[in-house]
Amino acid sequence: MKEENLLNHFFIRRKKQLFIFVILFFISKIAVAQFPINTSYQTIPTGSPPALPPLLDTVIDNTVPDPITITRITEYNVNWDWYPIHDYSKIQPWNADASIYKFSSVVIYDANTHQMIRTLPNNLYPSYWSNTNADIMYSFREDGEIKTYSISNNSFQTLCQLQGYEVVKLGPGEGNIDNNDHYVALVGKNGINLDVIVFNLQTNQIVNTETFTGAWGNGNNVPDYIDWISVSQSGNYVGIMWNHNTTSINNPFNGHYGVEIYSTSNMQFLRRIADYGNHGDFGYAVDGDEVFVQFWGPTGSLNMYYLNRMERIELSNHSDFTGEGHVSCRNLNRPGWAYVSQDEEVHSGQLIAIKLDNSGLVEHFGHHYSSSRTYNKSPMPVPSPNGDKLMFKSDFGNVANTLEVFSFEAKKANSLAINDFKNMNLIVSPNPANNRVYIENNELITEIRIYNTIGQQLQTILNVNSNKIEVYIQNLIEGIYFIKIIDAKNKITVKKIVKSIK
Predict the structure, then answer these.
(1) Taking every annotated instance into account, which residue ranges of this chain make up the domain Secretion system C-terminal sorting (predicted)?
(2) All structural domains of the chain
(3) What is the pLDDT of residue 440?
(4) What is the pLDDT, as a whole number, of residue 13?
(5) How many CA atoms lie less than 13 Å away from 274 in the CB half-sphere?
(6) In sequence order, what are the residues at sequence separation of 6 or more whose Cβ sits closer than 8 angstroms to the Cβ of residue 455?
(7) 261 within 8 A of 267, measured Cβ to Cβ
């Protein structure tokens, strides 16, 4: 009987070991987690910016909870006398499948190699990617022409020519198409009057036109009393941000001020969700309802306002969000998050994603290292459609050249991805292990982090400053884990370990 029990125990152990090694094989083929870990917001000072990396080279920001890889993707173009940069935090540079990206309406690049593919026609500006077709851009011209442009065919198709307006704009500058490419809201100048034109991109017809008498004012190219207009991501709502420099609760324009929400179908006024409009973007909360995320509020420094009801949730009251910065919810395939930056180093100069609920959780995407001395040098981060990376601008602290600014891509360092970061000089043993593992490296070890297979950080050892360390894992349950080792040269090595049964 005793031998039978031992034999059964042996086969159980062998089955478990076989299962573990099969899991290890498959995990080695996929990325464990593509987003930084969730944590409460922390003020993490920028410190001295690292040296500006060469084109297509990277630096790693190890000061944040998860190391972030920052890759420089542009350089000064002599022929154009231009530093290629994306338009704005609320204008998506990546196409729908994130295979290519554009800088303004000038040029498109391969998103993997960061090599220029070709320039764009000069009669495309301003252009916006389709949210459903990776090959298509929409162009909304100031003369009222609405057209599409096919990247693969290098061809245009005119959808409509709006008539009767001196100027037609999307936004201006901060508007967007809904997620399904159905609706867009434009503004048209008719003397001093402003028309909100709701256009259906599927039927190529005007859905509704609402005139706001005198709202354009004496401005020539942009309205005096309205900051911007846009449809929401669902297309069910039209939001109007009234210019807080010319309107207010104490000085309304014909009763209008703040952030107003209208029905797309008939432009019926529904509600004023905020008395004061600041920089923000439309997105989806974790609960699935649409919201407007903006700086400032009656309380807190970052708030979200529901579009379908009068409810506000304070996302943060941290003083780091009281300065100049930008909000983007262009992560259409990853609802429930907004991406936020603060320009000034005094406000930590970080790039984060904040969860759109009342949890206060954020993901730290590193520092932008920009002086932000001019508006053009503001980082203005915008996430990819999947939200796993950010494009932003930075001068890496170069304040001497007021024009110099480059584009960068920030994403979680591939420390838990397909590559095991081979380091023949680093030893982790025993493996599998039960109670402890010993780590030895030729280079000085500075930091160790342990993650599970879904990317959750379980254990952190800082300030190691030794070539050898004993790491206790007795509190981990049986299974597979990843140990990330960072050395004094900021080299990251990841080793898979198995926590075995006794």
Answers:
(1) 429-498
(2) 2-30+419-499 (2.60.40.3080), 90-277 (2.130.10.10)
(3) 94
(4) 44
(5) 31
(6) 32, 33, 35, 37, 416
(7) no
Residue 478 has pLDDT above 90, yes or no: no
Give yes or no for a contact between 54 and 245, defined as CB atoms under 8 angstroms apart. Answer: no
**What is the three-class DSSP state of 451?**
strand
Asked if 70 and 62 touch (Cβ cutoff 8 Å), the reply is no
**CA separation for the pair 402, 485 (Å, rounded):** 39
Distance (Å, whole) CA 148 – CA 166: 22
Q: What is the distance in angstroms between the CA of the first residue and the CA of the last residue of the chain?
A: 22
**18, 10 contact by CB (below 8 A):** no
Nearest to 268 by CA among 207, 214, 201: 207
Q: What gap in Å lies between CA 337 and CA 38, rounded to an integer? A: 12
Q: How far apart are CA 54 and CA 19, in angstroms?
A: 44
Whose tokens are 């509704």? That residue is: 208
Cis, bond preceding 430 (omega within 30 deg of 0): yes
The reported pLDDT for the residue numbered 263 is 98
Contacts of 78 (CB under 8 A, 6+ apart): none
Write the CA distances from 475 to 13, 435, 471, integer angstroms: 20, 8, 11
The whole-number average pLDDT for the span 352-371 is 96
pLDDT category of residue 107 using cuts at 50, 70 and 90: very high
Name the E strands within 201-324. Answer: 205-212, 226-231, 237-242, 259-263, 269-274, 280-284, 290-295, 302-306, 312-316
Nearest-angstrom CA–CA distance, 73 and 76 = 11
Long-range CB pairs of 425-430 (<8 Å, 24+ gap) are 426/485, 426/493, 426/495, 428/483, 428/495, 428/497
CB 142 within 8 A of CB 168: yes
The mean pLDDT value for 188-196 works out to 98
Is the pTM here over 0.85, yes or no?
Answer: no
Q: Using CA atoms, how far apart are residues 108 and 137, in angstroms rounded to an integer? A: 12
Two tokens, residue 291: 């919201």
